[in-house]
Amino acid sequence: MGKKVALVTGGTGGIGSAICHELATQGFTVVAGYNSGGNHEKAQKWKAEQAEQGFDIDVAYGDVSDPDSSEQCVSGILEKHGSIDVLVNNAGITRDSTFRKMTLEQWDEVMNANLRSVFNMTRLCINPMLESKWGRVINISSVNGQKGQFGQTNYAAAKAGMHGFTKSLAQEVAAKGITVNTISPGYVLTSMVAAIGDEILDKIASTIPVGRLGQPEEIACAVAYLSSEPAGFITGSNLAINGGQHMF
Ligand code: CAA
User: Fold this and answer.
1) Which of 104, 146, 148, 158 would bridge with 114, disulfide CB 3.0–4.6 Å?
2) Mind listing the pLDDT tens digit for each residue in 54-63?
3) Which atom of ligand 1 is nearest to the CA of 145?
4) Quick one: pLDDT at residue 2?
C-alpha cells in the first residue's frame, strides 16, 4: 500500500506549517491547503521554502468557507494523490471585537471560515474514507471555544461548535475505522496571536501556568499522534493543549 495522504487546511500558516512538517516526518504524503486571498505565488514560495528544509509538501488552493471552492480543492487532491486519509481542519481566522461593536460581517466571516468550513471539507472527505474503511478527522479548535474570551463571541462560538460536530460525527463513523477528534490549542506563538498587541498579550500570558506561550510543534505532535494507527481507540475526544490556562 502507498503512503497515506494528509490534507491540512490552513497548512501554510503558523500551526499548519508545523503540522505539515510533523506529518511528513511521520511518513504521510502531505498537502497544505491554502487560501491566502488567492495569492498563489505566496503559496508556491512557501512550498519552495519547505523543500529547502527537506520537506516535500504539496499545496492546494481552496476557500474552505465556500462549498464550490472546497469541492475543487478536494477533487484536485483526490485526482492527483488518490486519497485523503487524514483531514486536519486547521484553517481559521479571527475578527475580534467586543460584542457591542461586532458587525454581522465579522460574525459571518468567522462562522464561515471556522465552522462552515469544517462541514464543507469533511463532507467531501468522509465518503472516500468510509469506502477505504480508514480515516482520521482532526479539528483544530481553541481554548477560547471552551472558556470564552473577551472580544471573541464569534470565534468562541465557532470553535465551541466544533466540539458538537466532532462528537456527533465520531459516533456516526466509529464502526468504520474512522476517528474524529478535536484539539484545542491555547495561545501559541503564531502571527494570529502576535496580532493581539503586546499589552493585552502580556496580560493573557500571565494567566498561563506553564509561564509561556505554546509552540506550533507542540500542537503538531498531538495531530501526528491522533493520525497514527495506535490512536485508533481515541474518538470523539478533545485534547486541550493550553499550558494549563484552562483546566476542567
Ligand atoms: N475583561 C474585561 N474587560 C476588558 C477586557 C477583559 N479581558 N479587555 C478589555 N476590557 C475593557 C477595557 O478595559 C475597556 O474598558 P472601558 O471601556 O471601561 O475603558 C473596554 O473593555 C474596551 O472595550 P472596547 O470595545 O473599546 O475594546 P477595544 O476595541 O479596545 O478592544 C478587543 C477589544 C479588540 C477585543 C481587544 O480587547 C482584544 O484584542 N482582546 C484580545 C482578544 C483575544 O484574546 N483574541 C485571541 C486572538 S488569538 C486566537 O484566537 C488564537 C486562539 O485560539 C487562542
Assistant:
1) 158
2) 999 999 999 9
3) 53
4) 81
Assess whether the C-beta atom of 16 lies below 6 angstroms from ligand 1: no
Say yes or no: CB of residue 94 within 6 Å of ligand 1.
yes
pLDDT-derived band of residue 1, with 50, 70 and 90 as boundaries? low
Burial class for 176, CB neighbours closer than 10 Å (0-12, 13-18, 19+): middle
Question: Cα angle vertex 213, ends 208, 219, to 5°?
Answer: 110
DSSP state letters, 24-90? HHTT-EEEEEE-GGG-HHHHHHHHHHHHHTT--EEEEE--TTSHHHHHHHHHHHHHHHS---EEEE-
Q: Is residue 111 in contact with ligand 1, taking CB distance under 6 Å?
A: no
| Secondary element (H or E) of residue 6 | strand 5-8
DSSP assignment string, 168-185: HHHHHHGGGTEEEEEEEE
* Structural domain spans, the chain: 5-235
User: pLDDT tens digits, residue range 12-37?
Assistant: 999 999 999 999 999 999 999 999 88
